[in-house]
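Budget justification, computational time. The allocation requested in the original proposal was used primarily to generate structure tokens for proteins on the priority list. As evidence of use, we reproduce two of the resulting records. The first is shown immediately below.
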Amino acid sequence: MRDEWKQFWSRWASHLWRLPFGLVIALVFFLIAFPEWRRSGKTMIGLWITAVYGLVIPVVVALCFGLAYAARLQISLKTGREFKVSLPINILINFVGLALGLWLAMWINHAAFGVPMAGVNFLGSMVFGGMIIVGFSFYFAYKQAKEEALALRAEAAEARYHALENQMRPHFLFNALNSLAELIESGSEDAAETTYKLSDLYRRILANSGLKTARLDSEIEIVRSYLELEQLRFGSRLSFDIEEPENSDEIFLPSLTLQTLVENAVKHGIAPSVEGGRIEIAISQQPNKLYRLSVTNAGTRYQPQVAANGTGLANTRARLDLLYGHHHQFKIECDGQRGTTASFNFTGEKID
């Protein structure tokens, strides 16, 4: 119940912008009529009359909205369904508040300063105020619709990100289990040791997979353990080198993206090659203050038609899109001498 009333006060407070705005409009009319007030010697009275209009009308309109939102809250609580104030109802509340506020201000000025209760002034003020009300109502309705659309897009992006993230964990596990199965089938003595190391490695992967971004040093440690496991399978056919920045504990990158690129390099580069190959990992800071991560595989050349069938690279690119937009510049390049390099930019900042 307390949360609902907090929401009520928040919604009602959003309409308090009318208080200073109404006073400003009233002062504009006072300045227009200032020569006449001055000529009649009633400048201070005119200022007081103006202040009454500028304060009473917006206060009454705000109170009308307070009553309307309180009624809306009670209906929602009793029916258990969200009841929204539509644009026509919003305009109607404004008009009711304007009419009541204008009548009350005229009555106060009549009682205090002897100002006639002129119907022409009432109708003219209603027309002018109504034009302002309709204009502002449409503007704020557009603004609210835009904010809601952005919120829905953010929720959809968040849901999509977590879906992609959840796909990456089994992606690693399937690849690792395939490697373990090969060791067992070959009768390798390292199969038991590999199983224990795999269990420890997957535990760390699960810890990082719950994060949008993880510390670079922890991601490198995961990749190093993974490559050491793969060396049990490939032996001398696989070697690797990691260039780790000194401040890697202060740099954050999307969790498991480095792991995915390394897995892809092993699966599509090292495994198909009879001679094997070397994997080089480098992280450097660019002139635009972004970091650049690259994974180079000196094994079999990159084949787009083969990689297109997997989910690892597609999910990596999609996650980078959601986190950094077009700034990540993810790409895969083939060099006849160095081999295949997968790289992307990232900010290095922690994203929750």
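The second record produced under the same allocation is shown here.
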Amino acid sequence: MIFARLLFLFHFLLLSSLALAQYPERPVRVVVPLAPGGSGDIFMRALSKEIGMVWKQPIVIDNKPGAGTTLGGEIVAKAPADGYTLLLNVVTGSIGQVAYPKLTYDPIKDFAPITMVFQTPFVLAVNSSLPVNSVAELILYAKANPGKLNFGSGGSGTMSHMSLELFKSFVGIDIVHVPFKGSSPAMTALIGGQLDGMFDAPPSVMPFVKTGKLKALAVTTRARASSAAEVPTMIESGLPNFEVGVWFGLVAPAATPVDIVQKLNNDIVKALATPSLVESLAQLGMDVRTMRSDEFSSYMRSESIKWTGVVKTAKIRFD
């Protein structure tokens, strides 16, 4: 009996090794839960070329936008766990259950994290007429003028809105949130002086900082952004542990074999180290950031806890 079990185990390990050595032996599908042309879509198409050359297999990008990225998440959560269907996971996907109570999958438990792939910071920007030049001065001004500052966002429940609510809860200030239908009209209002400030991505903010129409007070990621290297972080500005990044990562269905997840991690991390890819992404305001699969798992859980708390405290309604 013991011999038979050992023989079975040997055959199982042998077959697993052979399967891994051959993986991938057909095209790999990556579901992108965003519309074509956005930053996540552009990134994934650039990365897919690098990985495709290593694997000698095409990477098929399948755009499935809708329901705050949960439509694509549901497709991958229910896909075969064989490594041939992956999801470009987005930060907002980690709060799917609180945003969409009828969600048919668990955004944490139903995925096997592979690695984070890139992160885009936000810039805390204010209109140039506002008499503040640092985060500390903004906090003092807001406390002296409760409810008088208006900050815009691309809509209720967007990361620009969530960043504002996190900032308000961190420092205990009263700032009015003004949602717009997209970040572009909100930025137009900020430049025109109808808004006092907002959180937005460096490519949207920094050109107006250079022309003097806006002031960049801080970036929200733990490290300074390559596209706004002269701007301090929120942590450097006196807010320990304040970190916000619009991150994207790759995940597979939860039951995907560990050895396949590890191979995916190894190959993707190597592809992301390609200098030409790093440079082209930096020009788009994207900073490559990779993690081990277990690190990414812990990070996703911590993000879910953080943003779920913000949504509940601020009673955020998603558009």
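A brief technical remark on that second record: The CA atoms of residues 68 and 92 lie 7 Å apart.
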